[in-house]
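Hi, here's the filled form for the chain we discussed.

Project: internal
Contact: R.S.
Residues: 374
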Amino acid sequence: MPAVSSVAVIGGGVAGFATAVLLAEAGVAVDLVEAQPDVTALGSGITLQGNALRLLRRLGVWEQVRRAGYCFDSIGLRLPSGELLAEVSDTRTGGPDLPATAGMYRPDLARLLADRAVALGVKVRTGTSPTSLAQDVDGVDLLFSDGSGGRYDLVAGADGVRSWTRGAMGIELETRATGMGIWRAFTPRPASVTRTELCYGGVAHIAGYCPTGEDSLYAYLVEDAQDRSALSPAEKLAAMRELAEQYQGPWIEIRARLVDADRVHYTWFETHLLDGPWHRGRVVLIGDAAHCCPPTLAQGAAMALEDAAVLAELLLAADDLDDRLWSSFTARRLERVRTVVDASLHIGRMVAAGDQSGVPELMNRVSTLVSEPA
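And the returned structure, exactly as it came back:
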């Protein structure tokens, strides 16, 4: 019998819905609450490495991801002039029967996971957030903003970088900016773009793009972090186009398609890692609530999915929610995630310093690590 029979998941991102799906498949009653009015995530594209695809297959949505997204097995490196420097075969970290990478529109992935959860009986409530949490040795009591409440065997806080759950657990965790900001845009895909390609240097630290579907593309430009909050949508579009003008090759076609101000976003890179157990009693943190880092390795979604898979595996295999279970969870997640976070930050520092000579070795080291299931 599983260690839990009822679970509340706080947060409707990748980690939250993956946890809900895996537990509901095994007959656990799951309530999921999401503060936003809809589960279609904000943002543009998402890059899914092979180890993420392996888990999306486990969740039963791989075929839908394959059809909706864009799969590829190599990465290109270019100069600002557009000249192709190198074409590198990417590691199939999910195994030989899956592509190395898939790009996808982030809201589409959110909807696929939500639909899968609902089909398995997960009770999903959007526009709802927790307001209080109290636990004892037998369970956790939650109250919600809609006036309802419930008692659960476990609460999983998958509510992101600014996690309410983390605060309710009494955990103080500093989230710091890394010094870089990123422009992101979702645009139509030129036929010439068939994989992720990166340019290190020029007016931006990184200029890159990733195909996310037959007709769509995720483009991004990384600069020194600036306060762009006062810019109107039209001004943000103009600023991204101005940076993009310094890059040639496929960027010429991409820039011509940068016309929708509502699909341009700017955020700072941030990082934190909860260094120690991610649980307190019967409440546990997963995904960005416990760890976040710059997307320089494109492992954010994969680490969140791994958190969910390991947690669900342990909960379903154990009879009790005891110290042995939590020790196993910490042992299987903390150091693996630390390696990814540290490597992501180190790549950012190398790029900021203008020396990318160590980037390929670091990427290969992480690829070797994540090729082994968590």
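Let me know if anything looks off before we file it.
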